[in-house]
Design a protein that fits this description.
Number of domains: 2
Mean pLDDT: 94
Helix content: 55-70%
Largest sheet: 2 strands, antiparallel
Number of strands: 2
CATH topology of the largest domain: Helix Hairpins
CATH class of the largest domain: Mainly Alpha
Length: 115
């Protein structure tokens, strides 16, 4: 199987909602998406805590899907910039950061967008 992109995950999530006939308004959609995202992060933590490493990839996949759903809501209901564009800038910003080995922390260069 070919690698999947963030954009493809977002497109799949939008298609899934339509194909399953899920009616969404912005208030209900964000509540459900956030609760599911939090639940899935908890399942990753549980798998790691219980040393069930074979479960981690599937649980992380769920986190990614629901994070993409939240981004879709921002894009579709609020007209915000596409996740892939912001993600690219975020990665570029992270590359400018330096790591202080003594304090075990990254610096935070001034950037109006990423505080």
């Amino acid at each position: 199987m070919k690698n999947i992109t963030i954009k493809q995950i977002q497109e799949w999530e939008r298609s899934f909602v339509k194909r399953k006939g899920i009616k969404q308004n912005k208030d209900d959609a964000i509540k459900i998406a956030l609760f599911k995202l939090i639940e899935e992060v908890g399942e990753v933590a549980k798998a790691v805590n219980e040393n069930k490493w074979s479960e981690v990839p599937a649980e992380v996949s769920d986190v990614i899907v629901f994070a993409c759903k939240v981004a879709n809501i921002a894009e579709d209901f609020y007209g915000k910039e596409e996740l892939t564009n912001v993600l690219k800038r975020k990665i570029d910003y992270c590359e400018t950061r330096t790591y202080d080995k003594k304090n075990k922390k990254f610096n935070k260069p001034k950037n109006k967008e990423f505080k």
